[in-house]
C-alpha cells in the first residue's frame, strides 16, 4: 500500500534503542516470507492479529531487516548525522530508562511491544511527513495491508545508511529480558507503550517560546519572536503553519483529567486557543515586553472584554474626551447598564484625574495615546503613578503609536491594547485586537473572553504574523513620511491647523518626545474651507483610498465629520471637536515625493 511516500506490506514488531544524549529511536523488525524475490502473504500469528493498525514511525534500524521489496521515498538524501535533540525532552524521554535494544540484531530475541491504536499521534510528526528527514535510515510504517503489489528495490545508498545506523545502534545496545516469540504466539500479553511524551507534541508541553538574548532589537523580534526558538507546531517550515481545527483531542481520559487539574498544558477547544494564534501572541508579547498577550477578533472586542473584565458592576472608571467614537459609545451607553459610571477628562487634565481618584473608587483609567483623531498624548508615567497610588489600573490603547514607537508597559501602564487591524497587521486585510500585560490580569480578561467568544481564527492569526515581519520597515517609512508631510502641511496657506505629536505646535509635543521614539503614520489637519471644499480636496486626491481604518501599506484618507459622525448634527459634532473641514490622513509606504505631489495638487483645487 502506498502511503506517506513508502511502499510495503508485512508484519512488524517494534523494539527500541537509546543513545547517549539523544532521543531514543525505534527499531523495526520486518518479518517477511519470500520466494525468489516475490512476496507471499504475511503469516498470521496471534501477535499479528493484535496489530493491524495504521502507524507512522521514526526509527533507527538494523542491517538486513529490509526485504528487497521495501523502499522509502528518496527525495532528500539519508543523513548520517541525526538532528540534535535536547536530552530528556523528546517524546520518548519518559520511558527512555526502561526501553533498550536487544543485544542481537538478527534474531527475534528482543523485547517486543504492542502499540495502541492512537500511536500514530504519539510518534514523531516529521516522520509521517517524510520518512528520511530526521535521522539515519528512518522508516515510516505506513499501514498494515495484505497488498501484494510489487515494490521497488531500495537504492544502495539507502542500504548503506541503514547498515551504518545499525552498526551504531548495535554498539550501544544493552541486554534486556526478552519475550520469546513462542510465548507471543501462545498468546502472552505484550507490554503496551503508551506514555510517550515530547516537547514536539502539538500540545505545547515543555515548550519555551520566549525570545532569546541574541534578539536585541524590535525589528528582529518582530520577525523571529515566537517562532525562531520553537513553537507549538512541529514543522521544518520557516513560516508558521495555519492550524485549522475547531477542537483538540486527548489520547486518554487521564490526560484530560491532568489538563483539567492543570498538571498538563494543552489546547482543548478552538475558542480557547490555537497554535497559530499562540505564535502571534508571543510575538506581540516580545515587542511589548509583556508577560502575556491575548489576541481577539478585533480591537473593539479587545476593548470591550477588557472593560467588562476589569471594571466591576457598580464600579467607576476614567477616560478622555478624545477617543475612538465606538469606545465612547460603549462607555457611555453600555457600561451604565451594568451600573458602571465614568469620569471623562481632557488628556492633559491631571488635576481632573486626581479629583476623580479622590471622589470615586476608580478601578481603571483607560485612554488612547495618541488619541483618535487629534493625536493627543497622555503622560503615561505620570498617569500610572497617580492611579497606582489609589489602586487603579491603567490601560493604554497604543494603536496609533505601535509597539515600536512607544512602550507603555515600560512607562508604568498595567496593560497595553492595540487594534492589530491597523499598523500591526499593516496590510488592510485582517481584523484583530490584542491586550498585553502581566499574566494575572491577562488571565482574568482571557476567562471572560472564553465565555463571550470573539476568538481570532488561525487564518487571521497567520496574517498578523506575516504582517509583523515587516512592521519595523513599514513604521520607519510611515514615521518619516508623516513627519515631513506634517511640516509641509503646517506651512501651507490652505491648511488652518495640523495635529501631529512630532510638531512643536502640538500641545503634548514634549510629552510625546519623552515617551515616543517616533510619532506615527497618521496626520490630522483642517483645510481652509467648509464641508464642500473639504470634500473637493479629498476627492481630488489620487493616491489614497477614501476609507475608514489606518496603518496599512496603502494610504487612506477620510473626513471624520462624514466617515464617523455623519449621524450627528453639525453642532453635535462640534461638541467633540469634529469640524467639517477636518481630514485624517493615514500615510502608507508609498514614496514621499509621490504623496507630496498628490497632496499639493489637491490643495490647489480648493
Automatic annotation (TrEMBL):
It is an enzyme of class 2 (transferase). It comes from the Eukaryota. Its EC number is 2.5.1.160. GO terms for molecular function: cystathionine gamma-synthase activity; pyridoxal phosphate binding. GO terms for biological process: methionine biosynthetic process; transsulfuration. The keyword Amino-acid biosynthesis applies. Gene3D superfamilies: Aspartate Aminotransferase, domain 1, Type I PLP-dependent aspartate aminotransferase-like (Major domain). Belongs to the trans-sulfuration enzymes family. This is plant cystathionine gamma-synthase.
Amino acid at each position: 500500500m502506498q502511503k506517506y511516500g513508502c511502499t510495503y506490506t508485512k508484519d512488524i514488531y517494534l523494539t527500541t534503542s537509546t543513545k547517549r544524549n539523544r532521543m531514543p529511536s525505534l527499531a523495526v523488525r520486518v518479518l517477511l516470507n519470500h520466494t525468489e524475490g516475490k512476496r507471499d502473504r504475511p503469516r498470521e500469528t496471534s501477535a499479528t492479529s493484535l496489530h493491524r493498525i495504521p502507524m507512522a514511525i521514526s526509527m533507527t534500524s538494523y542491517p538486513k531487516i529490509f526485504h528487497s521489496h521495501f523502499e522509502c521515498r528518496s527525495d532528500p538524501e539519508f543523513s548520517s548525522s541525526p538532528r540534535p535533540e535536547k536530552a530528556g525532552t523528546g517524546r520518548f524521554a519518559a520511558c527512555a530508562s526502561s526501553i533498550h535494544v536487544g543485544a542481537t540484531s538478527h534474531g527475534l530475541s528482543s523485547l517486543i511491544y504492542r502499540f495502541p491504536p492512537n500511536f500514530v499521534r504519539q510518534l514523531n510528526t516529521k516522520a509521517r511527513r517524510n520518512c528520511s528527514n530526521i535521522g539515519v535510515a528512518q522508516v515510516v510504517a505506513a499501514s498494515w495491508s495484505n497488498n501484494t503489489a510489487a515494490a521497488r528495490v531500495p537504492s544502495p545508498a539507502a542500504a548503506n545508511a541503514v547498515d551504518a545506523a545499525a552498526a551504531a545502534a548495535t554498539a550501544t545496545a544493552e541486554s534486556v529480558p526478552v519475550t520469546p516469540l513462542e510465548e507471543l504466539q501462545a498468546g502472552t500479553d505484550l507490554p503496551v507503550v503508551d506514555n510517550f511524551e515530547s516537547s514536539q507534541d502539538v500540545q505545547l508541553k515543555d515548550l519555551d517560546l520566549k525570545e532569546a538574548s541574541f534578539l536585541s532589537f524590535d525589528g528582529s523580534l518582530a520577525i523571529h519572536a515566537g517562532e525562531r526558538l520553537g513553537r507549538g507546531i512541529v514543522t521544518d517550515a520557516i513560516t508558521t503553519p495555519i492550524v485549522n481545527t475547531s477542537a483538540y483531542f486527548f489520547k486518554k481520559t487521564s490526560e484530560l483529567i491532568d489538563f483539567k487539574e492543570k498538571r498538563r498544558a494543552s489546547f482543548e477547544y478552538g475558542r480557547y486557543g490555537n497554535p497559530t494564534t499562540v505564535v502571534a501572541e508571543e510575538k506581540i508579547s516580545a515587542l511589548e515586553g509583556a508577560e502575556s498577550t491575548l489576541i481577539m477578533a478585533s480591537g473593539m472586542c479587545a476593548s470591550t472584554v477588557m472593560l467588562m473584565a476589569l471594571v466591576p458592576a457598580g464600579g467607576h472608571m476614567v477616560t478622555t474626551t478624545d477617543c475612538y467614537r465606538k469606545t465612547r459609545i460603549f462607555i457611555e451607553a453600555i457600561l451604565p447598564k451594568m451600573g458602571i459610571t465614568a469620569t471623562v477628562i481632557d488628556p492633559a487634565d491631571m488635576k481632573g484625574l486626581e479629583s476623580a481618584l479622590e471622589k470615586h473608587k476608580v478601578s481603571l483609567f483607560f485612554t488612547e495615546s495618541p488619541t483618535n483623531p487629534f493625536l493627543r498624548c497622555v503622560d503615561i508615567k505620570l498617569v500610572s503613578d497617580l492611579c497606582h497610588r489609589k489602586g487603579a489600573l491603567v490601560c493604554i490603547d497604543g494603536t496609533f503609536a505601535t509597539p515600536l514607537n512607544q512602550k507603555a508597559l515600560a512607562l508604568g501602564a498595567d496593560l497595553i491594547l492595540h487594534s492589530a487591524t491597523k499598523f500591526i497587521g499593516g496590510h488592510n486585510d485582517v481584523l484583530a485586537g490584542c491586550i498585553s500585560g502581566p499574566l494575572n490580569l491577562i488571565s482574568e480578561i482571557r476567562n471572560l473572553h472564553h465565555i463571550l467568544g470573539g476568538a481570532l481564527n488561525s487564518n487571521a492569526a497567520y496574517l498578523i504574523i506575516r504582517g509583523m515581519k515587516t512592521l519595523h520597515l513599514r513604521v520607519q517609512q510611515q514615521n518619516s513620511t508623516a513627519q515631513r508631510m506634517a511640516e509641509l502641511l503646517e506651512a501651507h496657506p490652505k491648511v488652518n491647523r495640523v495635529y501631529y505629536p512630532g510638531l512643536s505646535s502640538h500641545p503634548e509635543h514634549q510629552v510625546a518626545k519623552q515617551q515616543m521614539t517616533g510619532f506615527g503614520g497618521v496626520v490630522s489637519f483642517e483645510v481652509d474651507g467648509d464641508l464642500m471644499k473639504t470634500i473637493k480636496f479629498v476627492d481630488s486626491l489620487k493616491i489614497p483610498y477614501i476609507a475608514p481604518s489606518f496603518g496599512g501599506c496603502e494610504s487612506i484618507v477620510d473626513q471624520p465629520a462624514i466617515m464617523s459622525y455623519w449621524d450627528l448634527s453639525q453642532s453635535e459634532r462640534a461638541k467633540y471637536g469634529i469640524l467639517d473641514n477636518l481630514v485624517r490622513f493615514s500615510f502608507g509606504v508609498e514614496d514621499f515625493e509621490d504623496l507630496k505631489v498628490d497632496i499639493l495638487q489637491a490643495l490647489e483645487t480648493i
